[in-house]
Amino acid sequence: MNRQLDAFVRGLNEAWQREDWHHVSACYHPDVVLLPPDTGDPIVGASAVVRTYRDFAEAAKLLQFDIPGLNIYSFEQIHMVHMRFALEYLFCEEHNYDAGVEVYAIQASDDLKIVWRSQSVLEHRVLD
Q1: How many domains is the chain built from?
Q2: How confident is the model at residue 1, as a pLDDT?
Q3: What is the pLDDT of residues 29-70, one digit of tens each?
Q4: Any idea what DSSP says for residue 42?
Q5: In the chain, N or C: fewer CB atoms in 10 Å?
Q6: Sign of the torsion angle spanned by Cα atoms 9, 14, 16, 21
Q7: Structural domain boundaries, residue 93
Q8: How far is it, in rounded angstroms, from Cα 97 to Cα 123?
Q9: Phi, psi at residue 113, to the nearest 5°?
Q10: Starting from the edge strand earliest in sequence, which strands make up the sheet with 60-75, in order?
C-alpha cells in the first residue's frame, strides 16, 4: 500500500504542475477540507481546492518543485502522508523560494481520495 500511496501523492503533484485539473480533482473527496498555509478559513470541497491550484498556476510561474521527503502512516482505512516540499516560482516579478510540509489524510475504499489536507510554509525567501 505504501508504494500505491507514494505514487498517488506524487501523481497528484505532477498533475497540478502540468495543469491536469481533471486528474487533480479526481484525487480529492467531494467534501475534502484544506487548511491553507496562511491560516485563513478552511477551504471545503474538491472544486474549491482545485481552484487553489488553478489560482497559483495563473498567478505564478513555477520554476521548480521538489519533494525531498515523504512519510506514510497507515491506520486501517485512513492513511496519513507527511510530505516535505520545496518550490521556486516567479510571482509579481519576484523570484521566490518556499519550503514546508503538506499533510494529507487519504481514505482508502474503492479508490484513494484525499479527505483532509493541511499546508504549512516553513521557509519563504525572495531570491535575487
Answers
A1: 1
A2: 74
A3: 999 999 988 768 999 999 999 999 999 999 999 999 999 999
A4: P
A5: C
A6: negative
A7: 2-127
A8: 8
A9: -140, 135
A10: 43-44, 28-35, 112-127, 94-108, 78-91, 60-75
